[in-house]
Amino acid sequence: MASTAADPAQKAGSSTEPADNKGFEKWRRTFALITGVGLSEEEFATEVTRIQNRECELRREKLIKSSPGVRFMMNNLAKAGCPVKSSMMECVPCDATKSGGFSNNHGILLCQNHFYSKTHQEQTMIHEMMHMYDHCVFNVDWTNLRHHACSEVRAAALSGDCNWSREFFDRGIRKFTKQHQECVKRRAIISVEANGNCPSRREAEKAVNAVFESCYNDTRPFDEFY
């Protein structure tokens, strides 16, 4: 009888122990991640990358469902014959120079290690979808600096990237007169300068200045600045 009474306890112990171990291991790794204790540099970097990737992907899915700007761009890309799916917006670690990118061969890259807020990721997604829209609708030649400059002007102007609050709080630029135009021009020049076909900053400035007025005022597919 004693051995019979012990069996249920043994079964209960064997069924809960893996769950207890799993919970403890999760707690241990969380503690190690926060403190750095018990993880090698490589393990720590791998864990950080995993967490950043998961957070970026979760935000991406939420924004696709709930962001008016993201949904608007996705709908207009579909209308233009270039539908975009979440799988075409890949979360990846990037270097320190950018928060996103667009390639007509690979789709949209979202730099998971450079987003500091949901709004930042939202603006980046809209920005890169503007490039996708321009490539789809206007057949942009990305080796042509003026073509590239026009798309950069439109993306910076329409994505929210140059909102006054973004400039003031995130970049520390406290200017009121023509703040939006100056931000759009500055950021477009930086992007064009990074084009492999751009020989110098001077050429990037020339390309942006040449197209700025017409491209800044072209708000398609939006009716006005987002």
Number of strands: 3
What is the straight-line distance between the termini? 76 Å
Regions with pLDDT < 50 over 5+ consecutive residues? 1-17
- The secondary-structure class comes to mainly alpha
Helicity level: 55-70%
Residues in β-strands, percent: 5-15%
How many structural domains can be distinguished in the coordinates?
A: 1
Q: Tally the helices.
A: 8
- Radius of gyration, whole Å: 24 Å
Largest sheet: 3 strands, mixed
Give, in order, the helices and strands. HHHEEEHHHHH
Biggest sheet: strands side by side, in what order? 1-3-2
The whole-number mean of residue pLDDT values reads: 85
Query: Quick one: overall form?
Result: globular
Short description:
The protein is mainly alpha-helical. The protein has eight helices and three strands, in the order αααβββααααα.
What does this structure look like?
One of its GO terms (molecular function) is metalloendopeptidase activity. It is a peripheral membrane protein. One of its GO terms (biological process) is mitochondrial proton-transporting ATP synthase complex assembly. Its main location: mitochondrion. Belongs to the peptidase M76 family. The chain is mainly alpha-helical and 226 residues long. The protein has one domain (21-216). It contains 8 helices and 3 strands; from the N terminus they run αααβββααααα. It has helices at 2-35, 41-66, 68-79, 118-138, 145-158, 164-170, 179-193, 201-216, and strands spanning 89-92, 100-103, 107-111. The protein has a 3-stranded mixed β-sheet with strand order 1-3-2. A hairpin with a 3-residue loop joins strand 2 (100-103) and strand 3 (107-111). Helix 2 (41-66) crosses helix 3. It is globular, with a radius of gyration of 24 Å. The N and C termini lie far apart (76 Å).
